[in-house]
What does this fold into?
Amino acid sequence: MALINSVLSWLMKQRIHQMELFMKYPHEVQLDWFTNLLSQAKNTEWGRTYDYKSITRPEEFKSRVPVSDYESIKPYIDRLRQGEQNILWPSEIKWFAKSSGTTNEKSKFIPVSEESLEECHYKGGKDLLSIYCNNHPETLLFDGKSIAMGGSHQVMEVSNDWSYNEGDLSAIIIQNLPFWAEFRRTPNLSIALMNEWESKIERMAAETINHNVTSASGVPSWTLLLFKRVLEMTGKSDILQVWPKFELFIHGGVNFIPYQEQFKKLLPSPKMTYLETYNASEGFFGIQDRDRADDMLLMLDYGIYYEFLPVDRLDSPGTATKTLDQVEMDVNYAMIISTNAGLWRYMIGDTVTFTTLSPYRIKITGRTKNFINAFGEEVIIDNAEKALAIACEKCKAVVSEYTAGPVYFNKEERGAHEWLIEFEQPPDDVGYFTVALDNALKSLNSDYEAKRYRDMILGEPIIRVMPAGTFYSWLKMKGKLGGQNKVPRLSNDRKYIGEILDILK
It folds into this structure.
């Protein structure tokens, strides 16, 4: 195993030289990908519609091709799922990453091409290991195995001669892993891709405790759940008593800060490393390349062409986007991508700021819309509004003002969403209103539904009925009375909830 560790560590480090190339020549690399992507897609339906053959400069691309979101490209994706091809991208699309919903849909289905798997997602995984091995030359990471907290996928039969796969991106990646990566992963594929999470956690814990695990990757909330079950099974007090050589946790998808203290207690070693990645259904965008930093290196040679839209121009995106050479530090941008899976000028919904420009590093600042995503649930404002309307109709209630935010894990309790609601007409039974709201959110958002499954990650919503005038008093206290100042409906932290509750004290 020592020899394998040495060889794999050496191989991983070789990629650093290629990364140094795009860090030194970022604009040239991005322009190359711009030309390459349009050339490959010029004969697709989309490429013919916008005459990609005649586009030679990013300025032409901006003026001719509209900025899109999921709703605008959904008709094309629906056709791909029915078996049509060469619509957005020339190679066959047979995989779709299932992601959280939008205004009109419970789930999104993001096309995943062979090129995006190989040149983006797998490349990102290898680069993450390259960065880690380069920063930690003494690592024994490859002496043991890695736990990947993957999701599930399913085959969808459309007709006798056409079927496709849909599921979590993590499941798609695990299902298609190269042999060398599969060799060092645990648990086995049949367990890793189970879709019933209660049984899955149980089986994962039982199988992994007998391996020499040196790393894990996944959403923090699910990983904590697994670690706690492992400790229950073994009777140990921390994870290092089970896996003494554990050295790396790779995380992404949600803000890690609320989970840091819990991980430190479970992994009480000063040598533990935590690495953040920015790997979404739409692409692998960033890797934390410096220990204990709070930003990520923007990965520029993954088959993705980037544009950045200042958030104050969200209402008129068009040609207002900035190319990489035009961005500034500390400006909040919505990220727009064109990819080797056929997403064109696609606004993914995340906002970022640049923390350095040489090389380009970014920090995720939020979403283009109000949201709660403390546990990977991605509840957006439209989910909240529709769920409240359903609950109010069932309970004959009328809401005048509200805000909601997360309640984070602690030793005794699971996470939850806390809702502060001021009613014009309160429900007769707040408990029934809570159940109605919870069920409505489950029906509207598949990620929320998954996190609420048997209360494993998210508990039932906490509804606090606010006295009349509470929100008015809060806005007045902040000097924000007036028509342009509104109560923030959803927040991914407890800042607003804390301020409002303080008023009641």
Observations:
- The chain has two domains: 1-303, 371-504.
